[in-house]
Amino acid sequence: MDYIIDQCYADNILEFCSWSIRQYASLKEMAESITFTTPLGEDEEVEEWLCKSLGELIYFSLFELNSEHNKLKGIFGRFEIQASMQNIACVPPGYPRCGGRRVENGELKWGLHRWPVKP
Questions:
Q1: What pLDDT, on a 0 to 100 scale, did the predictor assign at position 90?
Q2: What is the pLDDT of residue 23?
Q3: Where are the beta strands (DSSP E) in 12-64?
Q4: Are 66 and 59 in contact, with CB atoms under 8 Å apart?
Q5: Residue 109: φ, ψ to 5°
Q6: What is the DSSP letter of 102?
Q7: DSSP readout, 78-93?
Q8: pLDDT of residue 33
Q9: Is 111 left (phi over 0), alpha (psi -120 to 50) or beta?
Q10: If residue 108 lies in a helix (H) or strand (E), which one and from where to where?
Q11: How many CB atoms lie within 10 A of CB 84?
Q12: What is the pLDDT of residue 109?
C-alpha cells in the first residue's frame, strides 16, 4: 500500500523550465476551458490536473514511458480501470472510450462506470 501512496503523492513530477508568468497563466486558462471533458477544478492545482490528464494517457496508450507500468498492472489487474479525466481529444489506441454509456451483453447501459471489480 505504501508503494501506491508514494506513486500518488510524488512531488516534483513536472518542471516548467524558463516559463514566464504569462505562459503559466495561459496554461491555467487553457486548463479551465469547458472544451475539456474534465476542465481544471475550482480548487485544483494546474500541476495536479495536468498530471491526472497525462497520467491516464500514459497508463492506457503510452505505457512504455512508465517504468512502473507492469508493477501497477499487477496491483490493479483485478479491477477494470477506466479513464476518468477523458481530456484526450483524439483517442489513441489503447485509450478506453467511456463515459455515461457502455455496451454490456449487447445492450446499451447508461450510468457512471468506473473501476468495477472483475469477477
A1: 77
A2: 96
A3: none
A4: yes
A5: -125, 125
A6: E
A7: TB----SS---SSPPT
A8: 93
A9: left
A10: strand 107-110
A11: 14
A12: 65
Map residue 118 onto helix, strand or coil: coil
Q: In this predicted structure, what is the pLDDT of residue 110?
A: 60
Phi, psi of 102 (to 5 degrees): -160, 165
The 8-class DSSP code of residue 110 comes to: E
Residue 83 CA, distance from chain mean position: 6
Nearest to 85 by CA among 55, 109, 113, 63: 55
pLDDT along the chain (119 residues), means of 10: 70 86 96 92 92 90 90 86 81 70 66 52
- CA distances to 43, 76, 83, 87 from 115, rounded to whole Å, are 24, 10, 9, 18
d(CA 118, CA 80): 6
- With cell 468495477, the residue in question is 116
